[in-house]
Design brief:
The protein has a single domain, classed as Nucleoside diphosphate kinase-like domain (Alpha-Beta Plaits). Helices cover about 40% and strands about 20% of the residues. It has seven helices and four strands; from the N terminus they run βααβααβααβα.
Length: about 140
Protein backbone atom coordinates (compact mmCIF):
# COMPACT_ATOMS: atom_id res chain seq x y z
CA UNK A 1 0.00 0.00 0.00
CA UNK A 2 1.15 3.49 -0.81
CA UNK A 3 0.25 6.77 0.87
CA UNK A 4 -0.06 10.25 -0.55
CA UNK A 5 -1.03 13.67 0.74
CA UNK A 6 -4.17 15.31 -0.59
CA UNK A 7 -5.22 18.89 0.09
CA UNK A 8 -8.57 20.47 -0.57
CA UNK A 9 -7.43 24.04 -1.24
CA UNK A 10 -9.04 27.25 0.10
CA UNK A 11 -11.03 27.87 -3.08
CA UNK A 12 -12.78 24.49 -2.85
CA UNK A 13 -13.34 24.80 0.91
CA UNK A 14 -14.90 28.24 0.37
CA UNK A 15 -17.20 26.81 -2.32
CA UNK A 16 -18.26 24.01 0.08
CA UNK A 17 -16.89 21.25 -2.15
CA UNK A 18 -15.13 19.24 0.58
CA UNK A 19 -17.87 16.61 0.80
CA UNK A 20 -18.04 16.18 -2.97
CA UNK A 21 -14.26 15.76 -3.19
CA UNK A 22 -14.14 13.28 -0.30
CA UNK A 23 -16.98 11.32 -1.89
CA UNK A 24 -14.95 10.98 -5.10
CA UNK A 25 -11.89 9.91 -3.11
CA UNK A 26 -13.83 7.18 -1.34
CA UNK A 27 -15.63 6.04 -4.51
CA UNK A 28 -12.23 5.70 -6.19
CA UNK A 29 -11.23 3.15 -3.53
CA UNK A 30 -8.89 5.22 -1.37
CA UNK A 31 -8.77 4.75 2.38
CA UNK A 32 -8.51 8.04 4.29
CA UNK A 33 -6.02 7.40 7.11
CA UNK A 34 -5.63 11.02 8.26
CA UNK A 35 -7.83 14.09 7.92
CA UNK A 36 -7.64 17.64 9.30
CA UNK A 37 -9.28 20.99 8.72
CA UNK A 38 -6.80 23.78 9.39
CA UNK A 39 -5.53 27.14 8.30
CA UNK A 40 -1.94 27.80 7.27
CA UNK A 41 0.03 30.86 8.27
CA UNK A 42 1.95 32.51 5.46
CA UNK A 43 5.17 31.05 6.93
CA UNK A 44 3.68 27.52 7.00
CA UNK A 45 2.52 27.83 3.38
CA UNK A 46 5.99 29.06 2.37
CA UNK A 47 7.58 26.12 4.22
CA UNK A 48 5.30 23.61 2.57
CA UNK A 49 5.96 25.00 -0.92
CA UNK A 50 9.65 25.79 -0.28
CA UNK A 51 10.66 23.66 -3.29
CA UNK A 52 9.04 26.38 -5.46
CA UNK A 53 10.69 29.35 -3.69
CA UNK A 54 12.59 30.48 -6.82
CA UNK A 55 9.54 30.22 -9.09
CA UNK A 56 7.64 33.38 -10.07
CA UNK A 57 4.34 32.06 -8.69
CA UNK A 58 5.73 31.29 -5.19
CA UNK A 59 4.46 34.46 -3.50
CA UNK A 60 0.94 34.27 -4.89
CA UNK A 61 0.75 30.53 -4.12
CA UNK A 62 1.79 31.09 -0.49
CA UNK A 63 -0.73 33.94 -0.18
CA UNK A 64 -3.50 31.83 -1.68
CA UNK A 65 -2.80 28.77 0.45
CA UNK A 66 -2.85 30.90 3.61
CA UNK A 67 -6.02 32.79 2.58
CA UNK A 68 -8.51 30.39 4.15
CA UNK A 69 -9.03 26.95 5.64
CA UNK A 70 -7.77 23.81 3.91
CA UNK A 71 -8.50 20.12 4.41
CA UNK A 72 -5.41 17.92 4.49
CA UNK A 73 -5.72 14.16 4.12
CA UNK A 74 -3.51 11.13 3.88
CA UNK A 75 -4.85 8.69 1.32
CA UNK A 76 -3.86 5.05 1.15
CA UNK A 77 -4.25 2.66 -1.79
CA UNK A 78 -2.21 0.60 -4.22
CA UNK A 79 -0.49 3.17 -6.45
CA UNK A 80 -2.03 6.00 -4.41
CA UNK A 81 0.21 8.77 -5.78
CA UNK A 82 -0.53 8.15 -9.46
CA UNK A 83 -4.18 7.30 -8.83
CA UNK A 84 -4.79 10.52 -6.85
CA UNK A 85 -3.05 12.58 -9.53
CA UNK A 86 -5.25 10.96 -12.19
CA UNK A 87 -8.39 11.67 -10.16
CA UNK A 88 -7.36 15.31 -9.69
CA UNK A 89 -6.47 15.91 -13.34
CA UNK A 90 -3.90 18.32 -14.78
CA UNK A 91 -2.75 21.28 -12.67
CA UNK A 92 -4.39 23.64 -15.16
CA UNK A 93 -8.13 22.89 -15.01
CA UNK A 94 -8.46 23.92 -18.67
CA UNK A 95 -6.15 21.01 -19.58
CA UNK A 96 -7.63 18.50 -17.12
CA UNK A 97 -9.72 15.65 -18.50
CA UNK A 98 -13.49 15.92 -18.27
CA UNK A 99 -14.76 14.37 -15.07
CA UNK A 100 -11.57 15.05 -13.10
CA UNK A 101 -11.78 17.05 -9.88
CA UNK A 102 -9.81 20.00 -11.24
CA UNK A 103 -11.78 20.13 -14.51
CA UNK A 104 -15.03 20.22 -12.58
CA UNK A 105 -14.11 22.36 -9.57
CA UNK A 106 -10.95 24.32 -10.49
CA UNK A 107 -10.92 27.88 -11.78
CA UNK A 108 -7.31 28.35 -12.91
CA UNK A 109 -3.81 26.92 -12.49
CA UNK A 110 -3.56 28.24 -8.89
CA UNK A 111 -7.17 27.93 -7.76
CA UNK A 112 -7.48 24.34 -8.89
CA UNK A 113 -9.29 22.88 -5.86
CA UNK A 114 -6.75 20.21 -4.85
CA UNK A 115 -3.11 19.35 -4.30
CA UNK A 116 -1.41 15.97 -4.43
CA UNK A 117 2.08 14.64 -3.90
CA UNK A 118 3.98 13.90 -7.12
CA UNK A 119 6.45 11.22 -5.96
CA UNK A 120 7.12 8.93 -2.99
CA UNK A 121 9.79 11.26 -1.57
CA UNK A 122 7.48 14.26 -1.88
CA UNK A 123 4.64 12.31 -0.26
CA UNK A 124 6.85 11.40 2.71
CA UNK A 125 7.84 15.05 3.24
CA UNK A 126 4.30 16.37 2.75
CA UNK A 127 2.64 13.81 5.01
CA UNK A 128 5.23 14.54 7.71
CA UNK A 129 4.59 18.27 7.34
CA UNK A 130 0.99 17.87 8.48
CA UNK A 131 0.79 14.55 10.34
CA UNK A 132 2.87 12.74 12.93
CA UNK A 133 2.92 8.96 12.48
CA UNK A 134 0.72 8.49 15.54
CA UNK A 135 -1.96 10.69 13.95
CA UNK A 136 -2.60 8.18 11.17
CA UNK A 137 -4.89 5.16 11.40
Amino acid sequence: MERTLAIVKPDAVEKRLVGSIIQRIEQAGFRIVGLRLRSLTRAEAEGFYAVHRARPFFGSLASFMSSGPIVVMVLEAEGAIARWRDLMGATDPAKAPAGSIRAEFGTNIERNATHGSDAPETAAFEIGYFFAGADLV
